[in-house]
């Protein structure tokens, strides 16, 4: 394992230990990191208390809030409003952890079976990131899923967003309507060109996070509303482990689990509900219950 990989692993050990053991001492963190280096057969690149203190400062620079409580005399990570309580950098570090476990540059061992899937377009992340920073338009060949058509697009890039295991570029058609934002799945982009030295003047009043605040996945049509449905305990356990939306509230009964959300009812959300069809019962709104009933009736007709 390279030294850089070992440094990042040390970050992971520190973050996870503090999250699981709030108000832990510097000594406890240092001893934990030493044990983890030994357990993972990682060459010890330094685990002194001075090294751990330096790591904590650098981790804070990555926007992971590690605080010290002088009353409790220990380190802790404050609760956040992020889904599952995890920051963006922690999710990235999780992916790095998976990569290390799978062998890194030595190849995937035969006892690990990663999912086989086509490229997610992550090779486009770096050039798009630079284009966004420099306010430079991009041009690429794009294949839409529906309707099925392909075209060359010239886009003013603003944001890169991850959703449901896919990355998307958010922005505006360079020669189109600048009041309507567009999203482009990176897995459907090819032949990308960053159009240096061209520049565009970005709109400064767009709150991209708020735009998707009440949405599931990428569809933004529709208005948020209260949605309540009921599932059995098995489906409820899966929904609890991987929440549908940050607004999610669960109530357990003897019969199953009541799920309450404040969310926009979009095609993406309906498809997510259908994945729980064997125990799903829509309580409100009535319009959603009727929509689901129509989908099931049409499916029954096709399969009868």
Automatic annotation (TrEMBL):
Instruction: Indicate what this protein is called per its UniProt record.
Output: Uncharacterized protein
Origin species, per record, is: termite gut metagenome
WYL domain: which residues? Answer: 123-194
**Entry's InterPro entries?**
CBASS_pafABC_assoc_protein (IPR051534), WCX_dom (IPR057727), WYL_dom (IPR026881)
Q: For the WCX domain, which residue ranges apply? A: 224-298
